[in-house]
Specification:
Helices cover about 35% and strands about 15% of the residues. With about 90 residues, it is α+β, with helices and mostly antiparallel strands. The chain has a domain of about 60 residues.
């Protein structure tokens, strides 16, 4: 019986999953080479795909980005797109 070895992912390989929680009753799924986006209204799905695709491209250019570097890349993208990212300790209570 031959034992199959699991291949480890290529160095710096990544896959980004985007989940858009808004809905208008339609199921939307967009898959790229290194990302998948599920859900959303027509407008919010396009916006989520744009953010996830940009994030995935930047991660690919960075090579092997650690969690902290990936977080900084995502925060930078969200700020450029006009979104205010949630702080790491959660939203502030009033």
């Amino acid at each position: 019986m031959a034992i199959r070895r699991r291949r480890s992912p290529k160095k710096g390989a990544h896959f980004v999953l985007g989940q858009d929680l808004q809905s208008d009753g339609h199921v939307r799924v967009t898959k790229g080479e290194a990302f998948l986006v599920h859900g959303g209204t027509a407008k919010s799905h396009r916006e989520t795909v744009d953010i996830v695709e940009t994030f995935s491209d930047k991660l690919g250019r960075e090579g092997k980005a650690d969690v902290k570097a990936a977080r900084e890349i995502l925060i930078d993208i969200l700020k450029k797109k006009g979104y205010a990212p949630v702080p790491p300790d959660g939203p502030r209570k009033k």
